Amino acid sequence: MEKPIFGTALGERANTDELLQKLRDLFDLIINA
Length: 33
Prior knowledge:
This protein is an all-alpha fold and 33 residues long. The protein has 2 helices and no strands.
């Protein structure tokens, strides 16, 4: 999977994968709404 653009900035922080997963879940809800 390609990383989101903002993922590169957050990528240097710990627990980034967890944050991105939550953001992805949010985007899925918005897109599928």
